[in-house]
Write a structure and sequence with these properties.
Layout: H1 8-25, H2 29-44, H3 46-52, H4 57-72
C-alpha cells in the first residue's frame, strides 16, 4: 500500500513550487537572490521539521526560514530595538 499523505519534504517542495511565480515576478537580481536564499533556508531544516511532525506545514516552513536567517546574522550585530507604540 502507498502513503495516504505526502512527506514533509514533498509538501514543502509543492509549497515552494507555488511560490516560484512570486519569485519570478521580483524586479531586481538582489530580490530574486534573497528569495532563493529564503527557499534554501526552508529546505535546510527539512529533517528537523519532519521529525517534529507538526500538522502545520507553514509553521515549520517559517520557523526554518527564520532560524536560517538568524544563524546568518553577524554575531556582533546589535540587538533590535523594540518598536515604539
Amino acid at each position: 500500500m502507498g502513503r495516504t499523505s505526502p512527506t514533509y519534504r514533498q509538501a514543502l517542495e509543492e509549497r515552494l513550487k507555488r511560490w516560484d511565480e512570486f519569485g519570478r515576478l521580483l524586479t531586481t537580481p538582489e530580490e530574486r537572490a534573497a528569495f532563493s536564499a529564503l527557499c534554501r533556508g526552508a529546505r535546510r531544516y527539512a529533517a528537523q521539521a519532519t521529525y517534529v511532525g507538526s500538522p502545520d506545514l507553514l509553521e515549520s516552513l517559517l520557523l526554518s526560514v527564520l532560524l536560517d536567517l538568524a544563524a546568518r546574522l553577524p554575531a556582533d550585530a546589535p540587538p533590535a530595538r523594540p518598536v515604539p507604540r
